[in-house]
What we know:
The complex is a heterodimer of chains A (1164) and B (213).
Chain A: H1 3-26, H2 30-37, H3 40-46, H4 52-65, H5 71-82, H6 84-97, H7 102-109, H8 114-147, H9 164-180, H10 191-221, H11 229-240, H12 247-262, H13 264-272, H14 277-309, H15 318-325, H16 329-367, H17 371-404, H18 411-422, H19 425-434, H20 440-467, H21 471-476, H22 497-519, H23 524-533, H24 538-543, H25 552-563, H26 565-577, H27 589-603, H28 605-617, H29 623-650, E1 654-658, E2 664-667, H30 669-675, H31 688-697, H32 703-708, E3 722-727, E4 733-740, E5 746-752, H33 754-827, H34 830-860, E6 869-872, H35 873-891, E7 894-897, E8 903-906, H36 908-924, E9 930-938, E10 941-948, H37 983-994, E11 997-1003, E12 1007-1015, H38 1029-1032, E13 1039-1043, H39 1047-1059, E14 1063-1067, H40 1070-1076, E15 1083-1087, H41 1096-1107, E16 1113-1117, H42 1122-1131, E17 1134-1137, H43 1142-1157
Parallel strand pairs in A: 7-9, 13-14, 13-15, 15-16, 16-17
Antiparallel strand pairs in A: 1-2, 1-5, 3-4, 4-5, 6-8, 9-10, 10-12, 11-12
Helix pairs in contact in A: 1-9, 1-10, 1-16, 3-10, 3-14, 4-14, 4-16, 5-12, 5-14, 6-14, 7-8, 8-9, 8-16, 8-17, 8-18, 8-20, 9-16, 9-17, 10-14, 10-16, 11-14, 12-13, 12-18, 12-22, 13-16, 14-15, 15-16, 16-17, 18-22, 19-20, 20-22, 25-26, 25-27, 25-29, 26-27, 27-28, 33-34, 34-37, 35-36, 36-37
Chain B: E1 3-8, H1 12-25, E2 29-34, H2 37-47, E3 51-56, H3 66-75, E4 81-85, H4 90-98, E5 103-106, H5 111-122, H6 143-149, H7 153-164, H8 168-175, H9 179-193, H10 198-209
Parallel strand pairs in B: 1-2, 1-3, 3-4, 4-5
Amino acid sequence: xxxxxxxxxxxGYVSVLFVVAWWGExxxxxxxxxxxxxxxxxxxxxxxxxxxxxxxxSVGRAATSGFDFLPIYIxxxxxxxxxxxxxxxxxxxxxxxxxxxxxxxxxxxxxxxRLIASLVTIISIAVLMPYISLQLxxxxxSYELLTREPTALGDQSQPLWADSTFGVAVAMAIxxxxxxxxxxxxxxxxxxxxxxxxxxxxxxxxxxxxxxxxIAWTFFHNPAGDIVASARDEAFARFxxxxxxxxxWLTGILTAMAAFFCLPHMFHVLIVExxxxxxxxxxxxxxxLYLCVxxxxxxxxxxxxxxxFRTSVNPDTxxxxxxxxxxxxxxxxxxxxxxxxxxxxxxxxxxxxxxTMICNDLVLPALLPLRTxxxxxxxxxxxxxxxxxxxxxxxxxxxxxxxxxxPTYPLTDIGLISFVGVAQLAPALFGGLLWRRANHAxxxxxxxxxxxxxxxxxxxxxxxxALGATVEFIEHGFPAAPWVAPxxxxxxxxxxxxxxxxxxxxxxxxxxxVVASRLRRPSLLESLQSVRYAPxxxxxxxxxxxxxxxxxxDLVILTSRYVGSQAAIDAFENFYAGRDTFAQRVVDLExxxxxxxxxxxxxxxxxxxxxxxxxxxxxxxxxxxxVGILDEASNAIQFGQTLxxxxxxxxxxxICAFDENWHVTAWNRRYIxxxxxxxxxxRAGATLTDIIQFNQTRNEYGANDLKQLVxxxxxxxxxxxxxxxxxxxxxxxxxxxxxxSADGGYVSTLTDxxxxxxAAAALQEANDLLESRVIERTHALEQAKADAERANTxxxxxxxxxxxxLLQPLNxxxxxxxxxxxxxxxxxxxxxxxxxxxxxxxxxxTDEMIEALQDISLLDTGNMQAHPGPFAINDLLEELRIExxxxxxxxxxxxxVMHSTHHINSxxxxxxRLLRNIIxxxxxxxxxxxxxxxxRNHGSSVRICVLDTGIGIAPEYQTEIFEEFKSLASGLDHxxxxxxxxxxxxxxxxxxxxxxxxxxxxxxxxxxxxSVDVQRAVSSSALPSNPAILDQHEPxxxxxxxxxxxxxxxxxxxxxxxRWGHDVWSCASPAEALAHIDRPPDAAIVDYHLGSSINxxxxxxxxxxxxGTSIPIVLCTSDRSAAVADYARKENWHFLSKPLKAAQLRKxxxxxxxxxxxxxxSDS
Amino acid sequence: xxxxxxxxxxxxLVRRALSDSLGQALSDTNIIAxxxxxxxxxxxxxxxxxxxxxxxxxxxxxxxGLAGLTLLQSTHPLLPVAILSATVDADHVHRALxxxxxxYLSKSMELTEMVSAITEILAGEIWTPSYLCKSPKSxxxxxxxxxxxxxxxxxxxxxxMIVEGRMNKEIAGExxxxxxxxxxxxxxxxxxxxVTRRTQLAVLASDYFNLKG
Lengths: 1164, 213
């Protein structure tokens, strides 16, 4: 395959990496979010563990030693299956400690020891250099294989510019610099970078699966001729010879487990880049799956490779060679890309994490004294520059190393050497996590010695040829001292070099860690940190206190820098007050915590931790040095704190801060003043409960206040800020507010709101006063309204009474006038007649007015009630015509009433009165012309219209005219009588009462149309016109016996009674009566003197006997003696003296009618 | 022989105006002016059958409203009584006629009109203002009327006395009957009117008689 094609593809792949990284770095897409939040990126970035070593080397290892390639995969698998809690804990601690690298993490455990950090970094460099060069070498070899004949392998004579490995190294350096060292972040997260790494892992597994699958299919499903069956079986046999309990397996698994955590790039992707424990959980089953797939595909490739080539080619190159051998260059290319991705993923990650460590742990501490020269921005730029340079150096070194490496040296061996080296970090790491006593000295000693042993037993033999050492020395040492042989240290033989080295290095490492730790006491800071890494159990706390070297005064002095000397001394006095003896005044964990917490009150928890840490790191220094360091460290803080204190003191509110356990941490003077607390009451460490108890003893609280106290509340449920007001016994009012502070504590604020309260109370009082005034006024108004209503009612009643009383003399006056008129007409004096006419007319006018007033008052007091019913409108109109005809004629106005057939539903009397008023007005205000009264249909009603050609009403008065006492003065003839404008007021009242609509249309000077809309009667067909009252009292037709001997009387009676509609039987004699009348009449009129032998009384007796029933009887006589009358009364007959009077007769007939209609009389 | 017309009005001015003007307008007529029902009764007792007409004001002190009319009716059933009132409405007219009035005259009538009305009544006609017609009231409103119409004259007299607040003994003395008889009357009245106590009767009766105006 041509080299340019391979280069192009490789270049293209690297470009794709750039694009992916750029995309991940700069874009915020939903897909990207999903990839991150689901843990995809995290899980696949872990797969950088599988480097080119896995891709090429494991195949080779499998081909030569069967399952021996497996331990390095079993290690992580076991970790994920059984040690997930350790992952979670390391992640949690790393986050808490803000660890950005393995060196950071381990050194922090040992009191942020710079020595440890440097050691770890140096070991990492030493370990990773061969590892990185291994990757580069793998790339180089695979490239060579693709582009050249396999026979030419190992030719190193080509110049630098033609070396593809160099190109790859440069590309990796650029990529790492661009995406791995973009900026400095506290978390050292690199979004785009990680995405690219994850992408590489995906490419890696896909390419491996494809190539391996294709190879398996080609060689086993469709065996090619060049497979050597015996060789294949030999390869298979290796897998059957499975010995998992060899020491090499054990060491392999152990080193893999250690390396999985301790490799700097693994630590970065596993721990630093972890976002949530959920991702670890996900990785715990996806990554083992990844490993299984990989392992599964390794086997067929290894078998096929062995079957075809045996050792004729390097078994590490089977992945490339096999496709080429079956003439599948594209498959080989795919394998190359897979290998490239495996190698580059590891290279870039390792170089970046190494660069970070070099920069942070080696270079920067040395440059620290210079930092004032650079300033913050300068420092950032400096750090970036150092890291970029470090990357360049690392990759250059790796490249050089790669060129020096024997190309045939098995990849797996180089990898294992690195693993053993990096495993030297494990005792320090896990020891620190599990054993609290592990300390700085032990860790440093262990690391150092372990590292040296590793170098001597593994690295040195590897490089021996280049260094001129003989194989003899390596295997057997000096003849005089065979125990120094790197491969048989202390005479230990019978192990492969890796196992041998692992055994000795880790043995020394761990032993020294334990021994040295036991011999030396930890520093203060270390103890603090050890607790954070390996938490105290309950037993530990009870058993005894950790003690640190240093004196309590150091702590007091330290604390006093922040809280003031007196306060610090008081606080510590108080702190130690509970302890028995002075001897116990030692610096222990509790006192350090107490100091930290005092300082936190002044400068905040985070800063306090920094200060304490800084102080403890130098706790071996003398007291003066502590002060000096602290002065330097806290100058900036001091300024801020003074400022803060000044601000706090200048605030008008009282402020007191508490920690999460309600211990006082800070306060201002005003807080003490507001609460009237004694000056020694508040000190750091006092509790809110103390204050409350003190307040309670001096009766500060009312019953209600106690309920409101914040400590009586469920703080979980409480919403913040919690505010309440308290009335102090001295009359002041405090508004007390509690709020959460950012560090989990509480801040209480006291505000004197006495003035506001006074103002509010005054306002409330004013409000109440106002309210009561409003109520008063409302009451008064209601009273006034009631009075007015009562007055109105009494006015109406008064009017009613008045009008009645007025009418009496008025009527009298009219009667007198009539009498006078009568006399005047007789005397014939015309002048007197005129005067009388005037008098009459004025009397009538007064009369009408009073009647109108009476009507109004009746209507207003509700004494007039409507009794609607159906009737024919024409009868009413005819009545009105008759009534007004004379008046109209007198005025010279023609009055026309149109005949109407409508039947309406209304109160006849009230409607009549209404129309009477309208017509009366029309007549009055129509000087000439005519008045027309008529009806027409108007929807469901009948509209009764009164039109005139009168003076009209101006539009603005058209509603006003219906008001009381308004009449139209204009255009009135002065000779005409003026009258109160009550007519239309009555009209509108009656219309309201009857629920009729009144309409007015008028043109001034032309005339007026007033109309009333009256509901049409339901059945308008054949309603009889309403009978007049008189008709209802029309007597029934009676049969009346008249017995009188006088003919004239008889005839008179007959005429009269017949006219009244009765049947008359006139009889002149009793005999006639008896002869003709066989059935009883309804009544009888009998004369007492009948001119015969028997009188009326006797006749009546005979008749009654004859009829067998008694009837109403009138006995008449001209006899004035009382005897007859008395007899009649005794007989219960009516008695009339002659001559008979019509009115009395009528009365008799009426009583007969009444008696017959009401069937009474039986008991009278 | 002169006609005898009694005018009963408590208002002296009206009484005088009526008696003067009617006396002048009606020929051959003797006007007897009375200020109260008792005056009327007295006059009627004196000249009994010779009284042609009583013109009775409705609004009289003492026995007012229709009670006066009923009282006159109960003692003198054939004595023509016409109401002469300042208030004219259909209701009043109707009830007055039901109670046995021979006519209903308005005080605001012209004298000539009044004279012709009186003349008509004397001629045996029943006179009411022409324009009035009966408002179609529901039957229940006239229930009281029909109940009272069912009473006999003697019963009506007793009812009036009860309304006036007289004791049984007084009533018996006045009517010249035994007290036991009065009691019998009263229990009959109670049965007819559907009441059980004297006060109920008084309330019902005063409602019936009391025509304001």
